[in-house]
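Q: What structure does this chain adopt?
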Amino acid sequence: MIPYLQVENLTKSFGDLELFKDIKLTIGQDQRVGIIARNGAGKSTLLKICAGKDTADSGNIIFKSDLHVEYLEQEPELIETATVIENVFASNDKVANAIRSYEKALTNDDKALLQHAMEEMDRLSAWDHEVKARQILSKLRLDDFHKPVSQLSGGQRKRVALASTLINNPDFLILDEPTNHLDLDMVEWLEEYLLKNKITILMVTHDRFFLDRVCTDIIEFDQKQLYWYKGNYAYFLEKRQERISYQNAEVEKAANLLRKESEWMGRMPQARGTKAKYRIDAFYQIQEKASQRRNDSEVEINVKSSRLGKKVLEIKSISKSFGDKVILKDFSYMFNRTEKLGIIGQNGTGKSTFLNIITGNLLPDSGIVEPGETLVVGYYRQEGMKIREDQKVIDVAKEIAEVVTLGDGKVLTASQFLNLFLFAPETQYSFVSKLSGGEKRRLFLLTILMRNPNFLILDEPTNDLDILTLNVLEDYLRNFAGVVIVVSHDRHFMDKVVDGLLVFEGDGEISGFPGSYSDYREWAKENEENQTKEIKRSVDKSEKSRSEREKVRKLTFKEKQELETTTKEIAKLEAEKVQLETEISSGSLPHNEITQKSARYAELMKLIDKKSERWFELTEIAEG
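A:
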């Protein structure tokens, strides 16, 4: 295996917080490595250091020479004044420059520049690269190539950055949360793309299906130690549990031995011989091992929800449009208590609009939203996080409630509740600005649950929350005594939480599906295959019928005349084409004539193609 990346004795701290110390790892060709750790453990920092965007306190990052490395940041920086396609080809290599010039000439309808750009594209064989770029942008639903980046949403910006990293044919990809802001179809396309192109990868993602399908290896940061697992996410889960069980057994063994040695230390006289000195040193080693009990406290969310009456929330014939774009069309729905509902659909089909309407943040054009009298909504959304950076974590919690009542009736102080969310006492008195992105998300979730909602809306809750937190959140939601609505691209999360789906199909159409996301995808795939077979049968039948008709019929007198005329016209056009090729390549024509003749040449090619297609049709009938 050829080593592509070597990390040697890497250490990084922020003030008193040591993220990692003297870590070592090697990633070889064709390995696809995922990093798993709690929020704040330094995953993104490690990626930044590997990408050269941050520096370590000590240690070395060594890439194989001549390796093309691309890095996707969590919050990518783009050229605000440039378009989508210009950002995608923002690198300064010759192919990117040629494509930028070509796209600029097309946009400005500059024939002189277009001629030069096309010649440069030909010389560099850049056409395939340009076609690939358009295909990737289309898959990521960035169809307006010439739209300024300044007009894009946060999700669209992330997709532009992702397209840029893929288009440049990297040998090594560093990806920080690549599935954030992708809908489910895009995530599945990205999986297939990465597997098909066999790119070496180092990435951080909380999408467990993505980890399972894409990764060949998993790295875990646990208590400042690095553990390597040669397998996908399912393999990691199995082997991690084995490792923890073994460590716990070793710690328990050391604790038993420590009790025995402590008694001996207490009985020992002051004057100790050589044997005693050896045993004393061993005692301190045992003491250190016995103190290594795992702090595996995970988020334990068991907040009491407000009582929910018989009527929860009813939607009656709501419609919503923005200009000519229909988002919702005469949609009605009645929510039931304890309903767990997933919402899926492509970006732009109205999912966020629907959530804003049912929460009263947006009025429908027509229709009624009737909430029950006891309804208490908790709305977790990406853009809705408003926590002051200059506040301390404990003050954020206390502003909502000094005490929190759990589902079992137990009352906790705000500090104790923060502790359940893995905010240790020292962290509680830190400023919010010191928290990682994932820790801020966890704090935001905590502030929502502290209000005791009975109708929970979670819009992309899996972005930036670590996997251990997600596992416990899933358990909480399954036992939540109220309604849960989830919008998520995380298929694992959807499968574990929801028992039904609302599918936003576009043009205001919404359909229901009883079952998990995996059930839906299996059904949709089967339905798609059946439709494909039906279309193929229809096409085969049509072609057979056409073939039979053409076999029995002959050319009409008019068609015979058309065939003769078309043959002569093609010959004439071909002759003009040859003449133009000679004149353009002679080098003696003035600039304006070259432009005119180049335009005529393009017209000729289209005419020849059109005439030739008709000539073949008539010839087939004549020979039939």
